[in-house]
Amino acid sequence: MESVLGARVVDWVPVRPWAVARVLLDDGRRVVVKGDRGVHRTAGRPEREAAALRLLAEGLGVVVAPGVLAAGSSWVVMEDLSPRVALDGLIRRDGVGPHRGRLEAFARVLGTLGAVSAGRVSSFGPREWPPAGLPAGLLEAGVALEGAALREFGLAVGVLAEPGPFEALSHGDAEANNVLVCALGEPDERLIDFELSGRAHAVLDAVGFHVPGPAWMAVGGAGEVYRRALAAGVAQAEDDRVYGEALGAACLMWAVARLRRWPVLDGRPAGDDSRVQLVSTLEAAAGVAQVWRVWPALSGWAWRVSAWLRRRWADADVDVAALAPYTVRRG
């Protein structure tokens, strides 16, 4: 790496548990090195991340992410974006209120990612996304995905699989831990961790503003900011019917993917936050579909599954509408 960068390493600080280190070079530069080994294995992903970052900087000419200084098949060296910090850390510390502007900046830069890359990523590899299979054990519970709901499921998959003008570079893990912002003053936001990025329907990146991801019990408040930014490059995002159909499909697909975890959660002790989170996820996704008046059978099925989980898990039978946006999931 020293020969590639033309400078000697004088300090190396691991960022655990990831295969990441902050490095100081003898010419004064600070860089971030990411490899494919560590607790969270990322085999083959540094190469994809480097390709995505180069596409953004060199192919599309936008500054929304760190620049690539060097890369190999199993490692990538990027500019160090400090003193920026992860947005999720600020929200965990202070709540979302003081950082509403930074949250909106996150939504805006994600929408911009879709806007500038739409129709320009045909040579980039596809992003992996659900569905990879339906949840187990629902037939026995009397809430199987079948009939009209199953037909809508297939149609929703088709909407996302054939994005048309919405085909863009999707981040692949669009959560608040993957955007760095300045803690004071203007956010000066940058997206990071493009290891899961790929060609996909742009609206997949909007899901996290409507349906809780792994870290949160509830979310909300920046979805329209994302849409407006996306519409700057994808005019079809202005069409309520088209956008709502895609957003509802994406949110429901996320809920189905998260529902595959229910047997694991079933074995956890009462009071585990992940149970309430799953109920919240199902109801948030169904709520999105209802607001946009799309996928009535599939969203109705999501409500029925949520009601079944509430009966099965008494500790999860709570008023999720009372959860403040960006309430942290404990544990």
- The radius of gyration computed from the alpha-carbon positions, rounded to a whole number of angstroms, is 20 Å
**CATH A-level architecture of the largest domain:** Alpha-Beta Complex
Strand ordering within the main sheet: 1-2-3-5-4
Number of helical segments with 4 or more residues? 11
- Fill in the CATH topology of the largest domain: Aminoglycoside 3'-phosphotransferase, Chain: A, domain 2
What summary fits the major beta sheet? 5 strands, antiparallel
Distance between the termini: 38 Å
Classified by CATH, the class of the largest domain is Alpha Beta
TL;DR of this structure?
The protein has 331 residues and is α+β, with helices and mostly antiparallel strands.
Can you walk me through this structure?
This protein is an alpha+beta fold and about 325 residues long. It has two domains: about 1-80, Phosphorylase Kinase, domain 1 (2-Layer Sandwich), CATH 3.30.200.20; about 85-320, Aminoglycoside 3'-phosphotransferase, Chain: A, domain 2 (Alpha-Beta Complex). The chain contains eleven helices and ten strands. The strands form three sheets. The chain has a five-stranded antiparallel beta sheet with strand order 1-2-3-5-4. It has a three-stranded antiparallel beta sheet with strand order 6-8-9. Strands 7-10 form a two-stranded antiparallel sheet. Strand 4 (about 70) and strand 5 (about 75-80) form a beta hairpin. Helix 4 (about 100-115) packs parallel to helix 7 (about 225-230) and helix 10 (about 275-290) runs antiparallel to helix 11. The longest helix is centred in the C-terminal third of the chain and has 20 residues, at about 240-260. It is globular and about 65 Å long. The model has no long low-confidence stretch (mean pLDDT about 95).
